[in-house]
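With this grant's support, we have settled on a layout for protein records. An illustrative entry appears below exactly as we store it:
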Amino acid sequence: MNLNIEAAIVNVCLLCILTVPHEFAHAWVATKLGDDTPDNEGRLTLYPPAHIDLLGTVILPALMTLFGGGLLGWGRPVNTDVYKLKWGVNGLALVALAGPASNILLAILFAGLSIFSARFMADVSEFSSRAALLSVYLAVFNLLPVPPLDGSKLLIAARLPVAIYNELGRFGFLLLIVAMTATSMGMYMGITASRITDVIFGLFY
């Protein structure tokens, strides 16, 4: 078995770079909607250690990359109080969507950097291109309606019974790991992310 150590290192570095603004976006939108919980817990910051989860941002992504099991990762979840949020569960949906939205914005920035640096800094261009693709992939991945991913908060906004949501939450990570390693879900998400990334790069031509 050939272990792709270089790819694992790059993916972990990229995940660290992309996770911080993703989690900050959750905290920022929650604060704008009246919830001071993220600020009180030190999450309204771009300081990386505040948002990086050792298992979810480093260890598991590295192992999955090494052994060819797709890519699964997460940062430290930003806690919010739905009772403090403007518009309640609808506000919670906006907070949830802020993370994937930040990934799309980052993908646009990295795509622009990739194109700008292509002629004189090939390594930077390649790294930025990969960052753009991974950022879109994270947006797609996080929109899956499986707790604790961002997409699951949309189920709450859609008034899914709490008992059903909590039951899904008990097995959420296990379902994701099985789906990513034993099915073609990761491949299909990769294809979707690739097509969206192509559209983003097309904005610069």
Q: What stands out?
A: The chain is about 70% helix and 0% strand. The chain has one domain: 5-202.
